[in-house]
Amino acid sequence: MINDIYEESVSNKIKEYGKPAAGWFCSYTPVEIIDAAGYTPVRISGARTSSGAADSIMHTNICPYIKACVEAAESGDLDFLDCVVFTNGCDAQRRLYDIWKSRKPDMPIYLLTIPKKNTPVSVALLSGQIAALTTWFKKQTGKEIGDERIIDSIKTYKELRAIAAKLDEKRRDAKAPIAGSRFAGLMLGAQRMPAADAIRMLSDALEKGGEAAQPGPAVIIAGNMLDDPDWIRMIESYGARVVADDLCAGRRFWEMPEPDESAPPFAALAEAYLSKPPCPRMAVPDDSVAYMKRLVESVRPDGVIFYILKFCDTHLYNVPEMRRMMQDLDIRALFIEGDYTTASGQAATRIQAFIEML
Amino acid sequence: MDFNMKDYFDSLASSMEKKLAVEKTARRIFVYELGRIGRKLFDPQYASAWTGVFVPFEIFQSMDVGAVYIEFVGAMLSSAGMAPHFLQKGEESGITPDGCAYHRALYGAASDGLLGKPQLLIGATSPCDGGLKTILNMARLVGVEPFTLDIPYPPVTREKIDYLVGQYRDMMDYIERLSGKKADHDRLREAAAHSNAAVRIVREIYEACKQTPAPITSETLKNFQVIFALLMGSPAGTEVARVFLEEIRANIAGGCKDLPKEEFRLLWVQNRIQYKNNLIDYLQTKFNAKIVVDELNYIYWDDLDEDNPLEGLAVRQIMHPLNGTGEHRIETLKKMAADYKIHGAINPSHWGCRQNCGMRQLMKSALGDIGVPMINLDVDCVDTRNYFEGQLMTRLQGFMEMLRENA
Fold first, then answer.
1. Does the interface predicted TM-score (ipTM) exceed 0.90?
2. The pTM is what?
């Protein structure tokens, strides 16, 4: 049941919620605003197979997730969306916005620009951008979106994230840990349904437990857009426990400081989003490498698997420093450049060998 | 590899000085000034800085900062034939071979200790992720605190100008803190005045190139504005621009008789191929096709307010055609194609340049809609290791034959 939202047709499931659907891609998208506007936020996954359509529109050296999203859009699989919110998360994402605008001219879309710094003026700028996004949603719906509704959504997502944090801890529970693949499925589901439904789903999972992790070496999986629980399941099938992640669709979604309830809601959201565990896109002193170091020191895994989609400059340019850091921490690490498909034979073999070594 | 960057710049400047004594040409003066800029990196009178491209060099000029942007270094290594060695070094350090070779070559050179230790590292979030990430990687490698300019997207608003101007002020504080070089409003005003003077001349140069035939060769303005940026705010910038204009005026006065024939007028998209190659010559000699304008040779901003230059610099940086959405850039390309009466456009699609490669079909389609075919080559503009000239010539031949049929 938990993984239904992932395993069955997303579009059919979304219709059951009886709300319009707003697609989104980047973990810096303030889903609270989408929720407050009365939409179901739908984190978009790309097509797992290619018809060649995306290759004819974008160069081969563009992020495979972005191209898979183009592929999904071209196939009509995403036509159930009522609107889409993009960010300037990276070069490939802003090009995705351009392509979408050109190929889907009738679909309302919005580009939210997120600063790459976290300073008081960046927070103020983002606060204004979130306000502008809210105004755009008002125009789409013709309805007011008052502060109260936004504050309610902030509280709802705060609750959702708190439950996700507890589930994350359960991955490392000494007695009854939950499987990393199950956690990944839950997180993906939570990003594709109304927040209130997601809370029910996650609470249920927290209470009932379910699919337990098997014993074996503990690994962290880190990288960018790995939104396929089968990938995690494959790692588990070789005998490892995935005890934590640093992924766009994982920790970068649910781990965030609580928005300040005493501050105006746009400012509170801006502050919280810019202060969350940083994606490598951010140019902040306490950057994604420093964050990863803290995560590894806290979890003390037997190894770390970096799964980074090819052509992702923001992540791949971090690799030399990540390698150095892992050596300094004396933690074994495997670096894989992925193509967004379910693990290729070569990647699977490397993972298997790595886990055997652990 | 036995290579010393200080010696390289010294040798560049001194050899050009000798050549200039024999004959003063615009290109020689340009290269001479670049040599002098490179020397500043090693001159204790100046604070040394590596920066992102498209940052405001007027501010550096006003604070005695000897700065070069990192893509310039990558291009220089490539044009000197040394890029493959440093690209290999970069790859051995863990930098992906699928990334931009401008950045990878620089990282390899820095890993080799070739570049020394700058006092300042100033990146910007535009035009690409790779440039900023390289500055941040350099910071780790050489142990220097970096500074980042976060550039908002167009359109310009009061809020965005204030955001960027505030960061310029923070950057000036950063320069002062790390190098001891002081910000001085009068010197900044002076730099803005030099910048305006140079830009007025450059506008005149570009205006002349709209004529048919254009009073230049395909190489005259190669990499012009993107390198000229290094001179912005200096008297040398005005002098270089003036000499270029003189040459162009002389060509016009001579009826462009000494210039190659011009049957086709081409627009070059983004950056040129930096290493020695025969493509431009092939286009000229086989097809009488001349590059009359490069996308990056485009003055899109108004004169800076000399009493308040930071605001003008902010508008300039926000409105750069490569900043923000593709629509903004495409509108600029269409305008250039119309203004320069372009027959066809060439985009090298520099391997590893996501912001360009991701929208190349959109550019092609938009230019095609106004009757300007564009060819997307697949070439790495810095890395020669996968350069196959014969294939590229065959593709260019097909493209030019199509233009001929359309004519």
1. yes
2. 0.96
